[in-house]
Amino acid sequence: MANAEPPMDDDGPQSNGAYRQILADIRAGVLLPGARLRETELADRFGISRTPVREAMRQLEADGLVVHIPRQGATIRVLDYSEVMELYEMRAVLEGTAARLAARAASDMELDELTALNDEMASAPNTAAAYELNRQFHLTLLDAAKNRYLVKSVNALQKTLLILGPTTLIEPVRATEAVAEHMAIIAALRDRDGPQAETAMRTHIEAAHRVRLRALRGRERPTEGI
């Protein structure tokens, strides 16, 4: 039958769906660092068997997002302070390089798209919309750098950053600052000034890093800070 639904034991599409849903929960802060992942509970929640859930958890483990703790099982990985510092240092290096390369390689159409995304972000109605527009801005700039190996490196880093939870744009002031920082990046790109584009991107990432560290310090107190 041509349009039949995939069978319940076909764990390919289902494991991909479970994987994406768990990633979304990590990104949204529904699953926080240290949270246990129970196969039975997840299978019931997603309406699938435990086999695709187990496969999704293996993939998350390969990504470095899940670890197995003795007598506890699969758990969302907890990043220590030094790891967070290292992640943002590498993000500044990689995305700064992307901005420098994009200043040389980006088309006028790509620059116009970056401007349009940032304009939409400035008037985004909520944090979720601002997050998605910000994500599209960074992906568009990364594509404009025209370096496939850089794309792979940034994508791998971004997966690990998901462990940190909700976007820093949840702070209204940070969202406004990010739009202004994007404008500085775009201005350097339009001037075809690679070093300045890299500097503007590094400034942008470092600002996000400071907000993230404040949020993490808040988490360590009795009340959560993000």
From TrEMBL:
Pfam families: FCD, GntR. SUPFAM superfamilies: GntR ligand-binding domain-like, Winged helix' DNA-binding domain. The keyword DNA-binding applies. It comes from the Bacteria. Keywords: DNA-binding, Transcription, Transcription regulation. GO terms for molecular function: DNA-binding transcription factor activity; sequence-specific DNA binding. This is Transcriptional regulator, GntR family.
